[in-house]
Amino acid sequence: MKPPTLLYSIAASAVLTIPTTHAAAVVLVGTGSGALVHNGTTKIDITDPDDDQVIDTAEWGTAPIVTGSIQPVGTFNGPNNNGEQWAKIFDGQNTGSVTGPWGTGRSKVCCDFTPGVTSVTMTSSTTQYSLTGYSISNGGDTPSRRPTAWRLFGSNDGFAVETVLLDTVTLADINGGAGWTAHNQTGEVVFVAPTSGFSSFRFVFDDSLDDSVENDDFQLNEIELIGTPVPEPSSFALIGLAGLGMLLRRRRA
């Protein structure tokens, strides 16, 4: 497992961060929508914290929420005419064909894979989030399309300058090196320590099980980002003032 690295331009200031590493690499937790890690647990998927299967402005602000390198968000009929586009990986469904808040068709993104280029970015215009982990679910057909290597980055300027590497996964990290074993399967990553707060997160996919089969050999059913909002700086200031007031009162007493 490669330790996370802080990437920055020459013009940017270097900021030291505590490396975030896997607790147990990528653990396979089940198949289908019921296997998504926020179901029946206290873990909060920050892409849909109220679990209404819609990423709305109350949750992620009014900025562009999701941008992907395969098909435009909001285009529900892609090259395969099956509604396979990036928004579907945040619909809270890890299954086959669906009719839901993100449109009809298959509940996944596919295909047009370029290793190291294919990516998806999630941005909040209002809040920073600290991650404790995440999950990735593969698709429902063609095992060769299952992702086997990816990187997760965080940023607070929309990746204009700041790009912080939070996690790196290769096939050796998935299920102890055995890889995926079924369709519609969810793999969970748990961090040893929470990350710093970021307003944007980006997954870059570097390999699939066999990207030599065809040039569009990639698919993904679902991503969950598990974490919590980071309090505004003003909140910390208020807490600090309250603590100072209590200390002064104790001294006077």
From TrEMBL:
<feature type="signal peptide">
    <location>
        <begin position="1"/>
        <end position="23"/>
    </location>
</feature>
<feature type="domain" description="Ice-binding protein C-terminal">
    <location>
        <begin position="229"/>
        <end position="251"/>
    </location>
</feature>
<dbReference type="Pfam" id="PF07589">
    <property type="entry name" value="PEP-CTERM"/>
</dbReference>
<protein>
    <recommendedName>
        <fullName>Ice-binding protein C-terminal domain-containing protein</fullName>
    </recommendedName>
</protein>
<dbReference type="InterPro" id="IPR018247">
    <property type="entry name" value="EF_Hand_1_Ca_BS"/>
</dbReference>
<keyword id="KW-0732">Signal</keyword>
<dbReference type="InterPro" id="IPR013424">
    <property type="entry name" value="Ice-binding_C"/>
</dbReference>
